[in-house]
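Throughout our pipeline, every protein is held as a single compact record rather than as scattered files. The remainder of this section carries one protein's record, kept here as part of the documentation.

===
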Amino acid sequence: MIVPYAKIIFKICRAYSHSEEDFEDLYQEVCLQIWRTKDNFCGDAQWSTWVYRISVNVCLTAQKQESRRRPKTTSLEDHSKVLIDDRSYFPDESLAQLYVAIRQLPDIEKAIILLYLEEKTYKEIAEVIGIRAGHAGVKIQRIKQRLRKLLK
């Protein structure tokens, strides 16, 4: 049920976390929510769409909660968590740099580009995010431009 989608859950959680601890918490929470809500799946969409939607929603909710708890100003000494080093997970340096850049995008844009990288259609992306397919295409083009700037 979850195993076939573990890689995308992993990538989504990685993009929304800034430390190993955050990543582990997010990944566990996503899997827990998928398990808890599996009986609510009514088959209107594909199971993969359901998994993506839950993954993204859990990550977005966690981001909102974290931003409310996070003090307005923090110093490096305040961060006791180990920051994520994408190079250990992505042997290709350019892929690691891409995920560092993706982490800098606004939350919804992260979700959209991750789904795009998983070769989801505009329609599938739109279903997960809750927008029209045409709008998904426009957003993807803008996100690509932003990523190009971040990677330069």
